[in-house]
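Query structure, 142 tokens:
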């Protein structure tokens, strides 16, 4: 059950995020990566998204991973997702989120399970060394 994934960010970070995640888990198929640049707007980005979907297999759904809730990539993805049979938009895309989505999109039981994976792994990947991790202060190097 491979679910299509579309990653969209402001600037050129979508490509960099996906390339980094692919270094860890391997090259991904059924993936579109789009950047949103100055001079573009929500409508022009929605057209780019719709065109990119033509190259993807969306029979099992499409998960849009965007950078900022309420930003242009989010709004454009919301427009396009409303035309899809099974789609969701998750904001806050980061490398832990991508890694887990890439690894789990063939094995999740339902489409909404992959959205849950995106949210939980994105949050779980945010840690503070001093606030979230305990270190032995006996002179050991990290």
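Result returned for the query:
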């Amino acid at each position: 059950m491979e679910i299509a994934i579309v990653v969209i960010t402001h600037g050129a970070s979508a490509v960099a995020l996906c390339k980094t995640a692919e270094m860890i888990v391997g090259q991904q198929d059924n993936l579109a990566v789009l950047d949103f640049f100055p001079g573009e707007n929500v409508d022009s980005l929605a057209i780019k998204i719709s065109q990119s979907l033509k190259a993807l297999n969306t029979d099992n759904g499409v998960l849009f991973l965007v950078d900022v809730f309420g930003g242009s990539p989010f709004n454009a993805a919301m427009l396009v997702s409303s035309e899809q049979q099974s789609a969701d938009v998750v904001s806050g895309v980061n490398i832990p989120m991508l890694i887990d989505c890439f690894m789990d999109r063939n094995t999740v039981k339902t489409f909404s399970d992959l959205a849950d994976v995106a949210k939980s792994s994105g949050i779980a990947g945010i840690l503070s060394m001093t606030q979230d991790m305990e270190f032995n202060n006996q002179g050991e190097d990290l």
